[in-house]
């Protein structure tokens, strides 16, 4: 510090004061003092403060980050995201489970872990099983944790990936419409979405080319057909609305129409009218009213009616009315008039008259007795007793019937039995006719027996009512064999008691045949019941 004189009062004062302590005169700063003051004023103190703050924050954050990264919650979450459930469970059990604060914090972080697992599966960076293991971990440690939304997401993604795989398989098998449908089910979140959209376009193009090739193949064929091609297009919008395909299909249908019309005409010339009509049925529906098609159809119909009525008349002249009706029935639906229908009515009436006459003739050779208690009729051959069994030493086969007129029901019964001196207690009934052989086991409940005082014993079996009769099929086959063969034999057997053989007589055969025919006619023609 130096002394200077005050410019006002001339007294000595310090050079550091701003005004004279004696007179109060304000002193001006020296140049070097001004420079020094300015330097201090312009010094960037805020930069020092800012740098200091940043250093403090970074240091604090680093410490916080260090502890966060090394916290048990963070470690367990990282292991879960990596799919290491075992390590995550170990940390949870050792450090988190018993600490309520950490447990709550860990639970809050599960949403991020689950979302990450779903996302990884969607991106194909993790398997579906990884999510399942994670879900099981959550369920085991937080039983009330809601995973419904994640379940919905993962199922949608899984279904999407399944559809993608199925679409690839369908495309490989050239099932293009199926592939397109499957690819369209791939969702945007699925990593396969972009490729699925690309494959949809490729499938549509390949499908169109495939159908065009098939149509062109049929157009070039000597026996063209349009139905497969039309069927492959129908209900598939990207094909149905394709102009190229529509034009080609129309061209094919035109060719099919011309081919089938010509085919029908050729078949009709050979009197093969059923096939001719089948050919016309192959004409595309939009051409059925075409003048050429309808003209050919009318010509073939007229020729068919003329031919079939002539053939039926030839059969009717031989009294083969059934055959005549069968023939006419095949063509009736193609007759636009009533010619065939009227012919059929005429022949059916003759058939009915013939059936009634045959039935009455049969009835005249049978004996019928009404039972007022059971309200039915017993039917046996003429000369037989309708109230009793007619089995004897000479008659070992008998046929009877029961007729319920009110309910229009008839039951045929075939009886095999014998009368002789000693019991056999039949266990089997065997039939032999030419190469035909059949054995009917007889149970205790199937066998009937009676002592004939003074004339031995009698055993019989109702073959149509055997306990296991369904095992051996219909009795119709047996009746046919024994009534049409020159020689038929029946044998009654039992282990340890011997057997009895009997050659079925022509009288027995005739009697069985008459009762059986009687029942057949009633079964087939309901109107015959009024003649009972």
Task: Write structural notes for this entry.
- The protein is of the alpha+beta class.
- It contains 18 helices and twelve strands.
- The strands form three sheets. A six-stranded antiparallel sheet has the order 3-4-5-6-10-9.
- The longest helix has 28 residues, at 193-220.
- The termini are far apart.
The gist of it:
The protein is α+β, with helices and mostly antiparallel strands and 532 residues long.
Q: What quaternary form is this?
A: single chain
Q: State the helix count.
A: 18
Q: List the strand order in the largest sheet.
A: 3-4-5-6-10-9
What's the alpha carbon Rg, rounded to whole Å?
Answer: 54 Å
Name some characteristics of this structure.
532 residues, 18 helices
